[in-house]
Amino acid sequence: MFQVEPEVQVLCHCHWQHERKTAMTLVIVHGLEGSSESQYVIGTGSKAWTAGMNVVRMNMRNCGDTEHLGPTLYNSAMSGDVGAIAQTLINEDGLQKLAFVGYSMGGNLVLKLLGEWGTDAPPQVKAGIGVSPAMDLAPSSDALHARANRVYEWKFLLGLRRRILRKAALYPDRYDVRYLRGMRSMRDFDDQITARYSGFRDAQDYYTRAASATVIDRIAVSTLVLHAQDDPFIRVLPETRAKLLGNSHITFTETAQGGHCAFLAAPSGYDGRWAERQAIAFIQRVDREELAKLAAG
Fold this sequence. Notes:
By secondary structure, the chain is of the alpha/beta class. It is about 40% helix and about 15% strand. The strands form two sheets. A seven-stranded mixed β-sheet has the order 3-5-4-6-7-8-9, with helices on both faces. A two-stranded antiparallel ribbon has the order 1-2. The protein contains nine helices and nine strands. It has helices at about 40-50, 80-90, 105-115, 135-145, 150-170, 185-200, 205-210, 240-245, 275-295; strands at about 1-5, 10, 10-15, 25-30, 55-60, 95-105, 125-130, 220-230, 250-255.
């Protein structure tokens, strides 16, 4: 358990190498309505472990059946939770090298945190990766409402609705389930639930304030961003693309195919989970380059 606020804890599953203080530690952050048990989290963690890294599989607030660990909801603005975990790992566990990888919503949180830190990032933080990150929240949320994407949207809405019902059962004085009525889109949910209970004026205010697109130009650690042109609902605005390409610390890789957080390749010598493989390779490359600099004096 990690304390991220006075009344809020989050559950992380930690896997330690024998020399855990000096090994690279990878913190993995899942996407909307995912958990530390999501397939891509397990897959990335397995590859990191095999590569000799410590692995921390983070659950966002309420995820992974942890609604009882705090009264609040989770949302795309809570980059501070990832930062609180990092600071605990550094200050209390004495870990010397950290990297982050986030998928979709988790990718937004990772990029937002790195941008907010800017040049003040802890020196132990070596790399960050966003896979299909939701950097531009408003157009991405609206794209979910397109006819072709309704199956995704309804899956998210059903999961979120069930979560609010569970939270209301635990904290009946805090949540009013009547606001779930008439919910037809993610923007509706964010207007009526996320904004209402997380301190935003409305959905648009939430999307603006939570989007990593506003701070990615300030990222100052080595960062990889993977995005597929055929992603069904993640949208990258021209100004965000310009920020990505204009920041020398960011490697922006855009593929023609890959969908949303899938990036499946032919399983030639591995399981074909290309993005997971690229994430681990990127961290290893950053680590090698830093070791080479230290050896050169």
